[in-house]
Design goal:
two-stranded parallel sheet; 9 strands; 29 helices; 4% strand; mainly alpha; single chain
C-alpha cells in the first residue's frame, strides 16, 4: 500500500490510510534496519500521533511507547548519515529520472538500478525538515548544495520554509532566488490568504526586489499575480508597489487578456455559468427554470400599488436584497455561497482582499439589473425615479412617522450627464452619514453643527438599538472550534465508518440530520471532538448510543448556523422574514444566554460588519486591496466617461441606507414605547 504522508490534522484522506498506519505502528519495534523511506514515514506518522490522532484500539500508553520507538529510530538514522548518504538521498528525492533505487537503499554501494519510487517525492519537504532538525549543514557545504540544486533544478521554495537555509547558505539562497522571475510569486505568497509562507532572505534589498518585480511583469503570463500587483497590497513590506509598477502590470494584463479573448473566440468557451434573469411577467417568472437566479419586477403590481411607501416596500422585499434575518444579502458570504474546493478556483487573494465568488458576482449583476428595470418601469408608468422615493423618505416619511427633520437633500436632474448624477448621489451618501450620526449623538440634526462635522466612517455609524448585531467572540477559542466542527465542509466529523462503507455529508450537522448516527461509529481521534460537543451541551448522546440534538440545542445550533453562514445575527429579527413573536423571544433569550457564556458578543451600529465591509468594498479603496472604490473615483477628481453601472451602485447604496434607517426608527419607536 502507498506510504502515509501527513499534510494537516484536518486532512480527510487520513481515514483511508489507517490500515497502513496501523501496520507500521505495530511493526516499528521489530524493524531493526529501517530504510530511508521507512524513516520518513515514521516521521509523518509521528506528526498525527503528536496531535493525539490515532485509532481507539491503541491505548495512551501504547501510543507513548510507539512514539518513543519512532523518535529513537529517526534520531539514530539521521545522526549516522554521511555526506555521501545525504547527497544520494537528495538525488533520489529530487531527480525524477534517476536510475537509483531509494526503496531498497541502505548505503550508496547497495543501490540497485531500478526506477525511483514516484511516491517518494512526497517526502521532499520532510527530508529538508529533518535536514534542519539534525543540522546536516555541518556535513554539506555551500558548494555541495549548489551542485545539487543545479544538477536537479530544485525549486528554491523548498529552502524557504524557514530561515535555516538562508542563514546557513546566505549567498547561495539569495543568488538562486533572484535568478528566476517566478520566485517573485513566493514573495507575493506571503500576503495571500491560505498560502504557504516563505522566508525571503534578509540579504535581498528593496531595490533588488523592485527589479525582480519589474522583470517578473515583463516575463510573466500569470494573470492572477499580475492583478495583485496592479491592485496593490496594503500591508506589503520590503517593497513599495508604486504607480509605475501598477501601470506596467495593468498594460501587461491588457495585453494578455487580448490574446486570451482572441484565442477563446476561435473555440467554444467552457466555464462557470449560471442563468441570471429579470422578469416582468408573473406567469413566465413562475414557470421559469428553478436553477435561474431571477427577480420578478411585477409591472401590474407596481402600477396598482403606486404610493411612495408601497414602492419603497417593493424594493425592500426584492429577492436577493436582504436575507431572512434582514441582513443585506449583497455582501460576500464564503461559508454559505461557496465550498472550500470551489474557492480554490478564484485565484490568489491577499489578506486584505474582499472575498468574492461566482455566486457573489451573479447576485450583484442580478440586483443591478433589477434596479435598472425598476427605474425604467417607474419612469415609463409613473413618471418617477428611484431618487424621488429616496427623497420622499427623508423629506416626508421620517417627519410624518417619527418627527425627524432631515436637512434638504438635492438630487441632480435626470437630464444631467450620468457622471454628474452619480457624483451627486455619492455626495448625498456622505451627507446622510453625517446627519445620521448627529441624530444618534444629539437627538436632532442641527444645520450649523452639520457644517462643522467631518464625515464619519461607515463602520462608526451608531445605532439607537442595544445589542443590535450579534457576532462570534473571536477571542473565545471554544466557539470557533464548535462552529468548525458543526458546519465546516473540512470537519473530520463529516465522515463515519459503518459496516458497509462510509457515510459522508458536507457538514457534521447534515450527517446528523440525514442519518441515525451512533457514538460507536466514530474513531478515537473523532471521539475527542464528539465528547467536546457533548460536554459543551451542543449535542446529546442517548443511552442507546445514538447522537441527537434536543430542542434547546437545535435553537442554539440555528443561531450558530446563521452566524457561521453570514457572520452576524440581527438580534431584533427572527431567522425568517416573517417570524412569530414567541419564536423571536425564544431566540433572543437563547442569544442572551450565549452572550452571558462569553461565546458571542454584540455591537450597536447602523450597519453590521458584513454590510459595512460590502459598502466599503464598493465605495472606498482604503479597506480592501481589490475594492471597487467607486466613490473615491467620483469625489477625488478622476476623469472618466459616463458609467450606468456606477449610477446603479449609487442608487442601490442609498436604498440600503433608507431600509436600514427605517428599520432603526421603527424598532426604536416600538421598543421605546414598550419600555414606557
Amino acid at each position: 500500500m502507498e506510504r502515509f504522508k501527513f499534510y494537516s490534522i484536518n486532512d480527510a484522506s487520513i481515514d483511508f490510510y489507517w490500515g497502513r498506519i496501523k501496520k507500521v505502528m505495530k511493526n516499528v519495534e521489530s524493524n531493526d534496519h529501517p530504510i530511508f523511506l521507512d524513516v520518513l514515514e515514521f516521521y509523518n506518522i509521528n506528526k498525527i500521533l503528536k496531535n493525539d490522532i490515532y485509532l481507539s484500539e491503541f491505548s495512551k500508553e501504547q501510543i507513548k511507547k510507539i512514539r518513543g520507538s519512532f523518535n529513537k529510530k529517526i534520531n539514530i538514522f539521521f545522526s549516522s548519515l554521511t555526506k555521501e548518504n545525504i547527497i544520494y538521498y537528495l538525488e533520489c528525492l529530487f531527480s525524477v529520472t534517476s536510475n537509483t533505487s531509494i526503496e531498497n537503499y541502505h548505503n550508496p554501494k547497495d543501490a540497485k538500478n531500478t526506477d525511483i519510487d514516484s511516491n517518494s517525492t512526497f517526502f521532499r519537504a520532510d527530508f529538508l525538515e529533518c535536514f534542519e532538525k539534525f543540522q546536516l549543514d555541518k556535513k554539506i557545504t555551500e558548494s555541495d548544495l549548489k551542485n545539487i540544486i543545479n544538477r536537479f533544478s530544485i525549486p528554491i521554495w523548498y529552502f524557504l520554509k524557514s530561515d535555516y537555509f538562508s542563514i546557513r547558505y546566505p549567498k547561495l539562497i539569495k543568488t538562486f532566488f533572484l535568478s528566476n522571475t517566478e520566485n517573485f510569486e513566493l514573495f507575493l505568497s506571503n500576503y495571500i490568504v491560505n498560502n504557504d509562507n516563505y522566508v525571503i532572505p534578509d540579504n535581498i534589498s528593496t531595490a533588488e526586489l523592485y527589479n525582480l518585480c519589474e522583470w517578473y511583469i515583463d516575463e510573466s503570463s500569470n494573470l492572477n499575480y499580475l492583478r495583485l500587483i496592479n491592485q496593490g497590497i496594503k500591508d506589503i513590506q520590503r517593497l513599495v508597489i508604486d504607480a509605475k509598477l501598477k501601470l506596467k502590470a495593468q498594460r501587461k494584463i491588457e495585453q494578455l487578456e487580448k490574446v486570451f479573448l482572441n484565442s477563446q473566440s476561435k473555440k467554444n468557451s467552457n466555464g462557470f455559468l449560471q442563468s441570471v434573469a429579470i422578469y416582468t411577467d408573473r406567469k413566465k417568472y413562475l414557470t421559469s427554470e428553478k436553477s435561474e437566479l431571477k427577480i420578478l419586477i411585477d409591472v401590474d403590481d407596481i402600477k396598482t400599488h403606486s404610493s411612495f411607501e408601497s414602492l419603497l416596500n417593493y424594493l425592500m422585499y426584492m429577492d436577493y436584497f436582504f436575507n431572512e434575518n434582514w441582513i443585506l444579502n449583497l455582501g460576500s458570504f464564503p461559508n454559505f455561497e461557496s465550498s472550500t474546493l470551489t474557492r480554490l478556483f478564484y485565484g490568489p487573494k491577499t489578506r486584505k482582499n474582499y472575498e468574492t465568488s461566482f455566486y457573489f458576482h451573479n447576485k450583484d449583476l442580478l440586483v443591478k439589473q433589477a434596479f435598472k428595470g425598476f427605474q425604467h418601469i417607474l419612469d415609463e408608468n409613473l413618471g418617477l425615479r428611484i431618487e424621488d422615493l429616496i427623497n420622499y423618505f427623508f423629506e416626508k416619511y421620517c417627519e410624518n412617522n417619527f418627527e425627524i427633520e432631515w436637512l434638504p437633500i438635492r438630487f441632480a436632474g435626470e437630464k444631467e450627464k450620468i457622471n454628474i448624477q452619480t457624483k451627486n448621489l455619492f455626495t448625498i451618501e456622505e451627507q446622510i452619514r453625517k446627519q445620521w450620526n448627529l441624530l444618534i449623538d444629539e437627538g436632532e440634526i442641527d444645520k450649523d453643527l452639520f457644517a462643522l462635522e467631518s464625515t464619519p466612517r461607515i463602520y462608526d455609524l451608531g445605532s439607537f438599538l442595544h445589542k443590535k448585531y450579534i457576532y462570534l467572540n473571536e477571542e473565545n477559542k471554544d466557539i470557533k472550534k464548535v462552529l468548525e466542527l458543526l458546519f465546516s465542509d473540512q470537519s473530520h466529523l463529516n465522515t463515519v465508518k459503518v459496516t458497509d462503507g462510509y457515510l459522508h455529508e458536507n457538514s457534521f450537522i447534515q450527517l446528523l440530520e440525514k442519518h441515525n448516527i451512533n457514538y460507536s461509529f466514530f474513531e478515537n481521534y473523532q471521539r475527542q471532538d464528539i465528547n467536546y460537543l457533548i460536554e459543551n451541551n451542543i449535542i446529546t448522546k442517548r443511552k442507546d448510543d445514538v447522537i441527537y440534538v434536543n430542542k434547546k440545542q437545535m435553537r442554539r445550533i440555528r443561531i450558530f448556523s446563521m452566524i457561521f453562514n453570514y457572520g452576524v445575527i440581527n438580534y431584533y429579527n427572527g431567522l425568517t422574514k416573517i417570524s412569530r413573536k414567541v419564536d423571536l423571544k425564544q431566540q433572543q433569550n437563547e442569544i442572551d444566554e450565549i452572550l452571558e457564556e462569553g461565546l458571542l458578543i454584540y455591537k450597536d451600529t447602523l450597519f453590521s460588519k458584513p454590510e459595512s465591509d460590502y459598502l466599503n468594498y464598493l465605495l472606498n479603496d482604503s479597506e480592501f486591496d481589490n475594492a471597487l472604490g467607486i466613490r473615491n473615483k467620483y469625489l477625488h477628481g478622476s476623469v472618466f466617461e459616463d458609467n450606468v453601472e456606477d449610477l446603479l451602485y449609487a442608487l442601490i447604496i442609498l436604498t440600503i441606507y433608507v431600509i436600514k434607517i427605517n428599520e432603526e426608527l421603527i424598532l426604536n419607536k416600538h421598543y421605546d414605547n414598550k419600555d414606557k
